[in-house]
Amino acid sequence: MLVLTCPCCGATAEETELAPGGEAHIARVGPGADASAFEAYLFHRKNPRGVHFERWRHAHGCGKWFHAARNTVTLEVYGTYPAQTPEPPRELLEKIAAKVPGFDPEART
Predict the structure, then answer these.
(1) Any signal peptide, and if so, which residues (predicted)?
(2) For the segment 28-79, what is each residue's pLDDT rounded down to a tens digit?
């Protein structure tokens, strides 16, 4: 079972209390975007084997959105941070780089 800590209220919750929101840190398109840009926004997502940055909502708690860094193979959670953060925190990227061979924190920023 996936267990995440909500950085907004501090509660630790199982995935049944959360709602997934897909990939984090993607560029959202506005109403003036052409059809191909809107298609890319809706359907073209990374689905990596390993480290992944995702959006989650604490649905049965505070109701706020947050981001989580986790490993899609082992389900290890490296950390969570508020959704208003434009990119993963440097400390979190360094923590992941120390644990995951071949992970390049510079490739994320």
Answers:
(1) none
(2) 888 889 999 989 888 888 888 999 999 999 999 999 999 999 999 999 999 9
CA distance 57 to 83: 9
* Sign for the pseudo-dihedral over CA of 89, 78, 18, 62: negative
For position 45, which CATH number holds? 3.30.2270.10
- Picking from 104, 47, 64, the residue whose alpha carbon sits closest to that of residue 55 is 64
DSSP secondary structure string for all residues of the chain: --EEE-TTT--EEEGGG-EEEEESSPPPP-TT--HHHHHHHHH-----SSEEEEEEE-TTTT--EEEEEEETTT--EEEEEETT-SS--HHHHHHHHHHSTT--GGGT-
Counting the structural domains of the chain, the total is 1
Only one residue has tokens 């508020």, namely 82
